[in-house]
Design goal:
Layout: H1 35-61, E1 69-74, H2 84-94, E2 101-106, E3 114-119, H3 121-131, E4 141-146, H4 153-167, E5 174-176, H5 185-195, E6 205-207, H6 209-217, H7 221-251, H8 258-269, H9 272-281, E7 291-300, E8 321-330, E9 333-342, H10 347-366, H11 373-376
Parallel strand pairs: 1-5, 3-4, 5-6
Antiparallel strand pairs: 1-2, 2-3, 7-8, 8-9
Helix pairs in contact: 2-6, 7-8
Family: Belongs to the peptidase M24 family. SPT16 subfamily.
Pfam family, one: Peptidase_M24
Keywords: Chromosome, DNA damage, DNA repair, DNA replication, Nucleus, Transcription, Transcription regulation
């Protein structure tokens, strides 16, 4: 369970298109592998297995009282799919994306905690090999169910029958990420089953969005370190590439489009010489395929669309007010940084800028551990 091979670019929906990147869930070995490499791979697999169990237990320990199970559905690889939370959960638990796979977590009964993996025969076999030997120590079980994509009603009946048995006299609830959109026969077959009034899922579907968010919001030490490293990479791209490029355009009074500036940043992220220079101070940036650009955006002038899905246009940089953003990731942990650059600001612009800056500084200083967010904002 290592990190996936990163693709050169990731769409705004978080889903890679077919063929743009592969997932590597376990260290590969060959006759030429050295003993030290094999030991390292074994150590990484052991650590990943322990992390998997630890994170599963975090989910069980923070289980929603009314739900017996939560189903995470991933369909085919497609730019039309919207499955951010499901993909995040797959990365978090197993270190890679698992298309055409349904993970059902049963946590409503402490004595019957389990993870069900529903997929085709090939993926089921792969995951069974991957998870064999993981030290569950009786904390929960793992069950595999094979889907054929044509008529999987019997498997889905088994899922909801288990949930209803677990519910007993209470109302049965199986949580789904209702806002996600799936592509592919298998995923659509499951969601159709869940929405039907003629299946065992009728009147059992609940929204699991808040539940999944609560599982992901608390970070362990490893995750915090990954986020810090991602933040370093985002900051370097902003300060040493994007801002310098903008300053050069302004100082030389040249014409350069928003799109071209963003292309410069994305090219820098793939520049081996630049990464090698940065890696002298931050060695982890030299790890193979560990870092990638999530998005770049620069807007200028008087009209701004402050949304993450906006693409840079081909208009030339306006030297008045500039909003620049860079999002990057380290081992699938993403951060972003946004800078507002004002050239020859007016009195009002300077006042508003200083107000925003002082507000941000106050929030940062107040945002200490165990601080309630409402208290920072002055609420009751």
């Amino acid at each position: 369970m290592t990190d996936p091979t990163l693709s050169p670019a990731t769409p705004a929906n978080g889903r890679r298109s077919e063929g743009s990147g592969s997932v590597k869930l376990e260290g590969s070995s060959s006759p030429k592998s050295t003993s030290s490499n094999q030991q390292r791979q074994q150590a990484e697999k052991k650590a990943a297995g322990e992390s998997f169990v630890r994170r599963m237990m975090r989910m069980f320990d923070h289980w929603p009282e009314k739900q017996q199970a939560v189903a995470l559905v991933a369909g085919e690889l497609s730019d039309d799919a919207v499955e951010q939370k499901t993909l995040a959960m797959q990365q978090w638990l197993l270190g890679g994306e698992l298309p055409e796979t349904i993970m059902v977590i049963f946590g409503g009964d402490e004595k019957k905690r389990s993870l069900w993996i529903l997929s085709d025969q090939r993926r089921v076999d792969m995951l069974e090999r991957l998870l064999t030997g993981v030290p569950l120590d009786g904390k929960f079980t793992i069950q595999y169910e094979v889907l054929n994509g044509n008529n999987d009603t019997a498997v889905y009946d088994k899922v909801f029958s288990t949930a209803k048995t677990m519910a007993g006299d209470r109302k049965c609830q199986v949580g789904l990420l209702k806002k996600e959109r799936h592509v592919g026969k298998m995923a659509k077959g499951f969601t159709k089953y869940c929405s039907s009034t003629e299946t065992m899922a009728h009147d059992c579907i609940a929204n699991a969005t808040a539940t999944v968010s609560s599982w992901l919001v608390v970070k362990d030490a490893e995750e915090v370190e990954n986020m810090k490293r991602s933040a370093v990479f985002s900051t370097l791209l902003m300060k040493q590439v994007m801002v310098r490029d903008v300053e050069s355009v302004i100082e030389n009074d040249t014409k350069k489009t928003h799109e071209a500036i963003c292309d410069t940043v994305e090219s820098a992220a793939e520049n081996k010489d630049m990464l090698a220079r940065w890696a002298k101070k931050f060695p982890y940036l030299g790890e193979g395929k560990a870092v990638d650009v999530m998005y770049t955006l620069i807007q200028s002038g008087k009209e701004f669309k402050l949304r993450p899905d906006v693409q840079p246009n081909q208009e030339a940089l306006d030297f008045s007010c500039i909003v620049a953003s860079v999002g990057a990731k380290y081992r699938e942990y993403s951060t972003n940084i946004t800078r507002t650059l004002i050239v020859d600001p007016t009195k009002h612009q300077r006042a508003y800028y200083n107000l925003c800056l002082s507000t941000m500084d106050t929030i940062i200083k107040s945002g200490k551990e165990a601080t309630v967010v409402m208290a920072i904002g002055g609420g009751g």
